[in-house]
Design goal:
alpha+beta, Dihydrodipicolinate Reductase, domain 2, 9-stranded mixed β-sheet, 12 strands, about 25% strand
Amino acid sequence: MASAALASGADLVDVNDTAELPEPVPYARLLRWRTAVIGAGLMPGLAGLLPGVLVADGGLDRPRTLTVRVGGLPHFPPAAARDFMDRLARPGGEVTAVWRGGRRVAGALGVERGVRLPYFPGAVTAIPYLTEEAVGVARRYGLDEVRWYTVFGGEHTRAVLDRYRAGLPPGRSVDEAATELSRATLTDLAGRAPHQLVTCELDGRALVLTGTDSSALTGTAAAHAALAVLKGELPPGQLHFAALPDSARLARRLAESPAVTGLRLLDGPLAELPLEEGIL
Protein backbone atom coordinates (compact mmCIF):
# COMPACT_ATOMS: atom_id res chain seq x y z
CA MET A 1 0.00 0.00 0.00
CA ALA A 2 2.81 2.41 0.90
CA SER A 3 4.63 1.65 -2.35
CA ALA A 4 1.46 2.23 -4.37
CA ALA A 5 0.82 5.56 -2.65
CA LEU A 6 4.34 6.84 -3.29
CA ALA A 7 4.41 5.50 -6.85
CA SER A 8 1.19 7.37 -7.61
CA GLY A 9 2.83 10.64 -6.55
CA ALA A 10 1.41 10.85 -3.04
CA ASP A 11 3.40 11.42 0.13
CA LEU A 12 3.06 9.04 3.06
CA VAL A 13 2.42 9.27 6.81
CA ASP A 14 2.59 5.99 8.73
CA VAL A 15 1.99 5.49 12.45
CA ASN A 16 4.21 2.39 12.31
CA ASP A 17 7.99 2.51 12.28
CA THR A 18 8.98 0.66 9.14
CA ALA A 19 12.64 1.15 10.06
CA GLU A 20 12.15 -1.74 12.52
CA LEU A 21 11.27 -4.17 9.72
CA PRO A 22 13.88 -6.88 9.07
CA GLU A 23 14.05 -6.05 5.35
CA PRO A 24 14.51 -2.66 3.62
CA VAL A 25 11.24 -1.04 2.61
CA PRO A 26 10.33 -1.78 -1.03
CA TYR A 27 9.69 1.87 -1.82
CA ALA A 28 13.13 3.25 -0.91
CA ARG A 29 13.90 4.35 -4.50
CA LEU A 30 10.77 6.53 -4.57
CA LEU A 31 11.90 8.61 -1.62
CA ARG A 32 14.09 10.78 -3.83
CA TRP A 33 10.92 12.61 -4.85
CA ARG A 34 8.35 11.89 -2.14
CA THR A 35 8.19 12.35 1.64
CA ALA A 36 7.41 9.50 4.03
CA VAL A 37 6.97 10.24 7.75
CA ILE A 38 7.10 7.03 9.78
CA GLY A 39 6.50 6.35 13.46
CA ALA A 40 3.88 9.12 13.54
CA GLY A 41 1.92 7.98 16.58
CA LEU A 42 2.20 8.01 20.35
CA MET A 43 4.97 5.42 20.76
CA PRO A 44 6.73 5.53 18.40
CA GLY A 45 6.17 9.22 17.76
CA LEU A 46 5.30 11.67 20.50
CA ALA A 47 7.31 9.81 23.12
CA GLY A 48 10.46 10.27 21.05
CA LEU A 49 9.69 13.85 20.00
CA LEU A 50 9.16 15.36 23.45
CA PRO A 51 12.69 14.82 24.82
CA GLY A 52 13.84 17.16 22.05
CA VAL A 53 11.77 19.92 23.64
CA LEU A 54 13.75 19.53 26.88
CA VAL A 55 17.04 19.47 24.99
CA ALA A 56 16.17 22.68 23.13
CA ASP A 57 14.86 24.42 26.24
CA GLY A 58 17.58 23.36 28.66
CA GLY A 59 20.55 25.04 27.04
CA LEU A 60 22.80 22.11 27.98
CA ASP A 61 25.99 21.56 26.02
CA ARG A 62 25.66 17.83 26.50
CA PRO A 63 22.54 16.33 28.05
CA ARG A 64 23.29 13.10 29.89
CA THR A 65 20.45 11.17 31.53
CA LEU A 66 16.89 10.81 30.25
CA THR A 67 13.93 8.99 31.81
CA VAL A 68 10.71 8.64 29.81
CA ARG A 69 7.47 7.09 31.06
CA VAL A 70 4.55 6.50 28.70
CA GLY A 71 1.21 5.11 29.77
CA GLY A 72 -1.87 5.56 31.89
CA LEU A 73 -5.26 3.90 31.67
CA PRO A 74 -5.84 3.12 27.99
CA HIS A 75 -7.74 0.48 26.10
CA PHE A 76 -5.18 -1.78 24.48
CA PRO A 77 -6.69 -2.93 21.15
CA PRO A 78 -5.88 -6.56 20.24
CA ALA A 79 -3.25 -5.64 17.63
CA ALA A 80 -1.41 -3.31 20.01
CA ALA A 81 -1.69 -5.85 22.83
CA ARG A 82 -0.23 -8.55 20.59
CA ASP A 83 2.73 -6.38 19.62
CA PHE A 84 3.45 -5.60 23.25
CA MET A 85 3.13 -9.20 24.47
CA ASP A 86 5.29 -10.41 21.59
CA ARG A 87 8.07 -8.06 22.66
CA LEU A 88 7.56 -8.89 26.33
CA ALA A 89 8.10 -12.58 25.58
CA ARG A 90 11.44 -12.09 23.82
CA PRO A 91 14.37 -13.14 26.03
CA GLY A 92 17.18 -10.63 26.49
CA GLY A 93 15.49 -7.98 24.37
CA GLU A 94 13.94 -4.62 25.02
CA VAL A 95 12.17 -5.41 28.28
CA THR A 96 14.26 -4.56 31.42
CA ALA A 97 17.03 -3.09 29.22
CA VAL A 98 18.62 0.34 29.61
CA TRP A 99 20.76 2.41 27.24
CA ARG A 100 24.04 3.08 29.01
CA GLY A 101 27.46 4.12 27.78
CA GLY A 102 26.56 3.89 24.11
CA ARG A 103 24.99 0.43 24.16
CA ARG A 104 21.94 -1.56 25.20
CA VAL A 105 22.40 -3.25 28.59
CA ALA A 106 19.94 -6.13 28.99
CA GLY A 107 18.38 -6.91 32.36
CA ALA A 108 19.66 -3.72 34.01
CA LEU A 109 16.28 -2.52 35.28
CA GLY A 110 13.44 -4.19 37.14
CA VAL A 111 9.69 -3.98 36.70
CA GLU A 112 8.18 -1.55 39.22
CA ARG A 113 4.89 -2.90 40.58
CA GLY A 114 2.29 -1.04 42.60
CA VAL A 115 4.29 2.19 42.62
CA ARG A 116 3.06 5.77 42.70
CA LEU A 117 4.61 8.05 40.12
CA PRO A 118 4.21 11.82 39.76
CA TYR A 119 1.26 12.74 37.53
CA PHE A 120 0.10 9.12 37.16
CA PRO A 121 -3.11 8.68 39.19
CA GLY A 122 -3.06 5.81 41.69
CA ALA A 123 -0.78 2.79 41.81
CA VAL A 124 0.75 1.67 38.52
CA THR A 125 3.09 -0.92 37.04
CA ALA A 126 6.08 0.51 35.16
CA ILE A 127 7.86 -1.86 32.76
CA PRO A 128 11.31 -0.92 31.41
CA TYR A 129 10.85 -1.13 27.66
CA LEU A 130 13.82 0.06 25.60
CA THR A 131 12.40 0.41 22.10
CA GLU A 132 14.26 1.27 18.91
CA GLU A 133 12.78 4.75 19.26
CA ALA A 134 14.43 5.10 22.67
CA VAL A 135 17.77 4.03 21.20
CA GLY A 136 17.29 6.57 18.41
CA VAL A 137 16.71 9.35 20.97
CA ALA A 138 19.84 8.31 22.87
CA ARG A 139 21.96 8.46 19.74
CA ARG A 140 20.40 11.67 18.42
CA TYR A 141 21.27 13.65 21.54
CA GLY A 142 24.39 11.76 22.61
CA LEU A 143 22.86 10.66 25.92
CA ASP A 144 24.84 8.62 28.42
CA GLU A 145 21.79 6.84 29.82
CA VAL A 146 18.17 6.37 28.76
CA ARG A 147 15.51 4.68 30.90
CA TRP A 148 12.26 4.14 29.01
CA TYR A 149 9.15 2.76 30.71
CA THR A 150 5.68 1.69 29.63
CA VAL A 151 3.26 2.40 32.49
CA PHE A 152 -0.04 0.63 33.15
CA GLY A 153 -2.76 1.59 35.61
CA GLY A 154 -5.61 -0.70 36.61
CA GLU A 155 -5.45 -3.80 38.79
CA HIS A 156 -6.65 -6.26 36.13
CA THR A 157 -3.99 -5.11 33.68
CA ARG A 158 -1.32 -5.37 36.37
CA ALA A 159 -2.49 -8.90 37.21
CA VAL A 160 -2.11 -10.01 33.58
CA LEU A 161 1.36 -8.49 33.34
CA ASP A 162 2.38 -10.20 36.58
CA ARG A 163 1.32 -13.56 35.17
CA TYR A 164 3.62 -13.10 32.19
CA ARG A 165 6.52 -11.34 33.88
CA ALA A 166 8.74 -14.39 33.30
CA GLY A 167 7.58 -14.79 29.70
CA LEU A 168 4.99 -17.06 28.14
CA PRO A 169 4.50 -20.43 29.86
CA PRO A 170 4.63 -23.60 27.74
CA GLY A 171 1.53 -24.04 25.64
CA ARG A 172 0.49 -20.39 25.87
CA SER A 173 0.54 -18.37 22.65
CA VAL A 174 1.21 -14.68 22.19
CA ASP A 175 -2.30 -14.27 20.75
CA GLU A 176 -3.89 -15.76 23.87
CA ALA A 177 -1.84 -13.54 26.16
CA ALA A 178 -2.68 -10.50 24.03
CA THR A 179 -6.39 -11.27 24.26
CA GLU A 180 -6.09 -11.40 28.05
CA LEU A 181 -4.28 -8.07 28.13
CA SER A 182 -6.77 -6.35 25.82
CA ARG A 183 -9.74 -7.59 27.87
CA ALA A 184 -8.06 -6.57 31.12
CA THR A 185 -7.63 -2.99 29.93
CA LEU A 186 -11.32 -2.87 29.02
CA THR A 187 -12.27 -4.20 32.45
CA ASP A 188 -10.12 -1.58 34.17
CA LEU A 189 -11.80 1.14 32.12
CA ALA A 190 -15.32 0.21 33.26
CA GLY A 191 -16.88 3.38 34.63
CA ARG A 192 -13.66 5.35 34.23
CA ALA A 193 -12.33 7.71 31.59
CA PRO A 194 -9.20 6.65 29.71
CA HIS A 195 -6.13 8.83 30.05
CA GLN A 196 -2.61 8.84 28.71
CA LEU A 197 0.57 10.53 29.90
CA VAL A 198 4.13 11.04 28.74
CA THR A 199 6.64 12.27 31.31
CA CYS A 200 10.24 13.09 30.42
CA GLU A 201 13.07 13.99 32.80
CA LEU A 202 16.40 15.22 31.51
CA ASP A 203 19.21 16.31 33.82
CA GLY A 204 16.98 17.82 36.50
CA ARG A 205 14.24 19.26 34.30
CA ALA A 206 10.95 17.70 33.29
CA LEU A 207 8.11 17.77 30.78
CA VAL A 208 4.63 16.32 31.21
CA LEU A 209 2.09 15.74 28.44
CA THR A 210 -1.40 14.55 29.34
CA GLY A 211 -4.01 13.35 26.89
CA THR A 212 -7.43 11.81 26.53
CA ASP A 213 -6.29 8.37 25.36
CA SER A 214 -3.60 6.65 23.34
CA SER A 215 -5.63 6.32 20.13
CA ALA A 216 -6.52 10.01 20.09
CA LEU A 217 -2.89 11.01 20.65
CA THR A 218 -1.76 8.66 17.89
CA GLY A 219 -4.28 10.19 15.50
CA THR A 220 -3.24 13.69 16.51
CA ALA A 221 0.44 12.99 15.83
CA ALA A 222 -0.36 11.49 12.42
CA ALA A 223 -2.61 14.42 11.51
CA HIS A 224 0.05 16.99 12.39
CA ALA A 225 2.64 15.06 10.41
CA ALA A 226 0.29 15.12 7.41
CA LEU A 227 -0.22 18.88 7.81
CA ALA A 228 3.53 19.45 7.87
CA VAL A 229 3.88 17.46 4.64
CA LEU A 230 1.00 19.31 2.96
CA LYS A 231 2.50 22.68 3.92
CA GLY A 232 5.81 21.74 2.32
CA GLU A 233 7.67 21.97 5.63
CA LEU A 234 9.46 18.65 5.19
CA PRO A 235 12.02 17.56 2.58
CA PRO A 236 11.80 14.43 0.43
CA GLY A 237 12.97 11.21 2.01
CA GLN A 238 12.02 8.98 4.92
CA LEU A 239 11.73 10.87 8.20
CA HIS A 240 10.98 9.69 11.72
CA PHE A 241 8.28 11.72 13.44
CA ALA A 242 10.40 11.80 16.61
CA ALA A 243 13.26 13.41 14.68
CA LEU A 244 11.26 16.06 12.80
CA PRO A 245 12.88 19.51 12.90
CA ASP A 246 11.93 22.09 15.55
CA SER A 247 10.36 19.71 18.04
CA ALA A 248 9.34 22.58 20.35
CA ARG A 249 7.26 24.27 17.65
CA LEU A 250 5.60 20.99 16.72
CA ALA A 251 4.87 20.25 20.38
CA ARG A 252 3.17 23.63 20.76
CA ARG A 253 0.99 22.84 17.76
CA LEU A 254 0.09 19.46 19.20
CA ALA A 255 -0.79 21.04 22.55
CA GLU A 256 -3.62 22.95 20.87
CA SER A 257 -5.41 19.78 19.78
CA PRO A 258 -8.42 18.35 21.68
CA ALA A 259 -6.56 15.11 22.43
CA VAL A 260 -3.92 16.94 24.49
CA THR A 261 -5.19 18.12 27.86
CA GLY A 262 -1.92 19.59 29.09
CA LEU A 263 1.72 20.20 28.22
CA ARG A 264 3.98 21.45 31.01
CA LEU A 265 7.67 22.27 31.24
CA LEU A 266 8.83 21.94 34.85
CA ASP A 267 11.96 23.45 36.33
CA GLY A 268 12.98 20.54 38.52
CA PRO A 269 12.90 16.74 38.70
CA LEU A 270 9.48 15.16 39.09
CA ALA A 271 10.43 13.39 42.33
CA GLU A 272 10.96 16.75 44.06
CA LEU A 273 7.68 18.27 42.90
CA PRO A 274 4.34 17.78 44.69
CA LEU A 275 2.76 14.43 43.86
CA GLU A 276 -0.51 15.06 42.04
CA GLU A 277 -3.38 12.65 42.37
CA GLY A 278 -4.45 13.45 38.83
CA ILE A 279 -4.49 16.42 36.52
CA LEU A 280 -6.91 15.13 33.92
